[in-house]
Amino acid sequence: MTVLNSGIDPTAADHTAHRAAMLDKLAELDAEHAKALAGGGEKYVERHRGRGKLLARERIELLLDPDTPFLELSPLAAWGSASPEYAVGAAMVCGIGVVEGVECLITANDPTVRGGASNPWTLKKAFRSHEIGLANRLPSIHLVESGGADLPSQKEIFIPGGALFKHLTQSSAAGIPTVAVVFGNSTAGGAYVPGMCDHVIMVKERAKVFLGGPPLVKMATGEESDDESLGGAEMHARTSGLADYLAADEPDALRQARRVVARLNWRKAYADPDPAAVAEPKYDPEELLGIVPGDLKIPFDPREVIARIVDGSDFDEFKPLYGSSLVTGWAALHGYPVGILANAQGVLFSEESQKAAQFIQLANQRDIPLLFLHNTTGYMVGKEYEQGGIIKHGAMMINAVSNSRVPHLSVLMGASYGAGHYGMCGRAYDPRFLFAWPSAKSAVMGPQQLAGVLSIVARQSAAAKGKPYDEDADAALRAMVEQQIESESLPMFLSGRLYDDGVIDPRDTRTVLGMCLSAIHTAPYEGARGGFGVFRL
Ligand code: COA
């Protein structure tokens, strides 16, 4: 065992100040999560309950094995959307939970938000959930009650939205089970959700599944009809055969969904690690709140984070004396082996980039998943570094990350700027899961630097034209740009755009990553033995 030491004093002034700043951010985050939980608001929640219906999260709770956790993903989807503004959560709940011992990907429409209709953010969330399901081979369960396309935003969703149904059948073709439980409206395109799923359950007198409702049928063919005969659960169970099971009510539908999963004969690719053999970290996770400074310009030692998330705080550091601005090493998390890359001083130099590329290759040779802990301002700039080959060395790291075939996990702890975000497996590099702490910030560069660059460019442009430069306007522009970039770098904004899978409390990091690793081990994986692009040496 190589147990990490800790230099943290939880009573020290800087620790308590960082902790206070983090707690403030967590309180802000809680307020935004509460909006997602509130769905369409009191009026619509009351009306929904008045109809004897369960809320989306209540349905999920009844579906899951008792006392098992639910890892909700992207609860802040649509946060910060404007003109039009969509409800936080995007009218859909999505996450991973355990049903009859099987880890499943669950989506549930929230019918209290504009009838559960899908807006552009709902679509992004559904697409992301499909990616997660496919990469990790998780059976999916869809709790359906939706007014279909959000009609005023149809231009954003009609054409791309067709992929929803394609995804369902592609999952099925890949042998990944799909289950639809229909609680209410599932009209028009939505009818293809049960239409495309392997298993379909419908709630009596509630489910309505038709390509066109009675008014549309009347318009199209002149035929008189009613909801039940066109698309009721009884009709689909007895006559059309679209429903495999008729449920008496909502709890019965969820019970039947559990029975379907119990009979899937589903097996994970890897046996779960023995929890009794897993040692907890030696240090208190509570102390994770006081590690990241409120001011991200102040560096912090990521080993203090590693010591609080890995099994037994046991960490074997790789190349500790070389490229010390990036910490690399081997550990286990809830019994799963992981290779960790964590930024230390913020900047990535040539040595760090080469070390990362070598480390990623080793993880691939040994089939070990990788965890990236971000706090980087990017690759080093300047004459000395350009001449030293920083571009080709950064490219080596990006090549290694891009072509690595072991599962990747990313956590944005602090800064994640510039190409450093890419080299550390940012969103575009397809980590299986990516989460941010409330302290994180991500953008092409820091707000002050970006405003300064714009100002220098404008000044040069004015000089080239022989025009005087307006210093007052420049100061005002810089302040405005700085504020804009700052707000666009914040985790709630980025989470709203689904650039991460959620903003998490640092204290939950070990649990969240453990659940992800468990889900990841549903699918077999093999590291890349070769197959990297040309490394510019
Ligand atoms: N797009 C945009 N807004 C929608 C919507 C949709 N597809 N469906 C419902 N809404 C809105 C309603 O306008 C209403 O807004 P308001 O309260 O501000 O007036 C709110 O969501 C709730 O709808 P309401 O009809 O009162 O709820 P309900 O629970 O009684 O009925 C539906 C829900 C989904 C059955 C019903 O709204 C409906 O049939 N919608 C249209 C379905 C459809 O044909 N969709 C096209 C599919 S491609």
Automatic annotation (TrEMBL):
Record PANTHER family: ACETYL, PROPIONYL, PYRUVATE, AND GLUTACONYL CARBOXYLASE-RELATED, METHYLCROTONOYL-COA CARBOXYLASE
Matching SUPFAM superfamilies: ClpP/crotonase
Organism placement in taxonomy: Bacteria, Bacillati, Actinomycetota, Actinomycetes, Kitasatosporales
Signal peptide range: none
Source organism, top-level taxon: Bacteria
One annotated GO molecular function: transferase activity
Organism (species): Streptomyces solicavernae
Keywords, alphabetical: Transferase
Protein's name according to its UniProt entry: Carboxyl transferase domain-containing protein
Ranges where the CoA carboxyltransferase N-terminal domain occurs: 22-276
The CoA carboxyltransferase C-terminal domain, residue ranges: 284-522
